[in-house]
Amino acid sequence: MMKSNILLIFVIVLITCLKVESQFTVYPSILYKGILTPITLKGTFSFGTQPTVKFGAIDGEIVSYTTTEVIIRPANIDSVTLPSVTITLSGYTPITIPTIYYTGYSQIDQYLYLIGDFQSIQSKSLYAYSLNQQTQIPCVYFNATSCFYEIVQDIISSTAPTLFVDRSTGVEVFRTTILIGPIVEKVIATGNQIIIQGFNLSPLNYVNINSVKCDIELSSDVQVVCNPIQSFYFDKITSYTVDVGLTIPSSPITSVSYQRGVLESFTSLSDGSTISISNFDESQHVFSNLFIVGLENSLPVTFSISSEIEVTFTKDATCGYVYLVDTTDPNAVVRLSNSMLLCPKEVVTNVGIPQNTDGVLYITGNYLSPNIYGTTEKRFSYYIDKDTGSETIQLSSISMTGNGIYTLVFPIPQGPIPFLLKMQSTGGTSTSSLIRYAPTIISVTETSYNIPSNVTITGTGFYNSQCQVFIGNSQCKNVQVLDLTTLTCLFASNVLPVDNKRIAVSVSFQNIYNGLNYIFEYKCSNPCVYGTCSPLENTCVCEGDWIGPSCSHLAPKIDRISSTKYGTPGKVTIDGDNFANVNLQVAIGGSICGDPLASQDTKSITCLFKSDVIVSDSNQALDVLVSVDSIAITKEKIFLYIKPEKQCPIGSNGQVCSGHGNCNQQQFTCDCNKDWESLDCSLPNLGGSLTPPV
Q1: Who contacts 428 (Cβ-Cβ below 8 Å, separation ≥6)?
Q2: Is the peptide bond before 416 cis (omega within 30 degrees of 0)?
Q3: How many CB atoms lie within 10 A of CB 192?
Q4: pLDDT at 15 over 60
Q5: How far is it, in rounded angstroms, from Cα 483 to Cα 351?
Q6: CA–CA distance from 508 to each of 444, 504, 562 (Å)?
Q7: Which H or E element spans position 5?
Q8: What is the structure's pLDDT at 8?
């Protein structure tokens, strides 16, 4: 009897031990609170009676069972508790299963966060699974209320639900429909556009940059190209928020941060510039691929320190709105900064010296382009500063040679007052040039030859700075600049004129500003009114038609004279020039012509000739002498008597040549006065012409 009891106890213990070892596995190994879907228990089962199951303390339902599989189901939604539930199958050791609960989701950039209760899955694997693409992505534990997974293109669907699967069993835990917003992987700026790369970028509704619309130019599922407003390129902002929205209702808006360097300011010298930059890590780039663009030529850069870029200008560099780029991919140049106005320092190499009456000024130099490259904006404003105030002027013209030398032409006021020309650049620099007119020489006092004397020179543009004065090749001593128009100096009076011409007087200041005028002459005993003094002879050498000891009288000119009949006194008219009623005397063949009278225009003389000079024949010409003031004397052999057998035409009034002309004693034709015509000078000249009779 004792042996039988011992055997019974052994069998009971053995059966109990076999039950402990016969554990089962729950499919899925993660349960979702609130779902009443069947749960599968797998293992080796042996039931003597109908099995029962409990979820915690609440009875559950046995849907079916076999020796290898038991399918159970919670009786109500409260059966599965958080963060875990203990499943008790009759005759087997209870097992505790982690539970989760999902309330919603949130998309942050390329990650999808499930919101709910996920505190029990730290060591479990929950995977997002796409029905369409058969792709599984792990949902990583983030904290007690969320897990997250990376959104990949294959898992996105706007119609099919996303399944969440227990990785260890491959069984679905729950499913839900998730609307994925645009996935932005990269934001790239080019010269004038923003390029957004990623996926799920269509159907696109809008792109905003810092809440301002970016006009969409091109759009596909993986790339968007848009044009931001103009201020985007110039704002000194290092970080922008880029919002991308789809047309799908309720789909999330994707917001990403775009970072860029900021060109803050620059300092330019004559051949280069240092540019201050912020929010830029040069270590992320290859220096040889970095350039400043926006000028006519791209400029390679170097970094003196991490926040300073150095560039060297080409000779033909202009002023322009520049920005930093990376040219690693020549087909996709990336903008790395905002735009900033960069200007080389203007260099003036030569300023012209205008004459008083020129009205123009020439300036040459480098980096003087008047416009900002690529725009119609003016780089310079030009001003004239005078004692009376400042005024704006405009360029007349500009040209450039191949080596980058500009020539600027300005309209300027007439001299002689100097002024300041200012060139004010929009780049913040300015250049001023003092403009002096070339000195002019108006007069110089005379000296006697070989007698050193002080001379006074008048003109314009004089100033007291390294003044030198030469008269001929003789340098004046003791130069004193009295004011802007007068100076004095000691002249040796030892220079002889060439060909009795006036001697050059030159005045220079600083060996830059030079004036020259052939104006100096010596004094003779007689003043040389219209001539120059020949110092060695002490006589005046007259100019042109001037004659006399002082060159003060014009020499009379005799062109023609009317005729009389021999023995018949008559009035004659002498035509010519430079006649004057100053002690006027006329003689024909030595016979005084009485009552001479010069016309007011000095071009004719009338006088009474006795016609008493005997000639051998009618073709013998007599001398005609005209004397003015007994100084200006002219004589021409020009007078002829009227031939007795011939005469000039007589007009209807009975006068030779109708009294309106002179008889040509050689041809016996009438030389009509002005405003008269015809053979006998009887017809007024009304502006037409007469055709001589055939």
Answers
A1: 343
A2: yes
A3: 12
A4: no
A5: 24
A6: 15, 13, 59
A7: helix 2-21
A8: 44
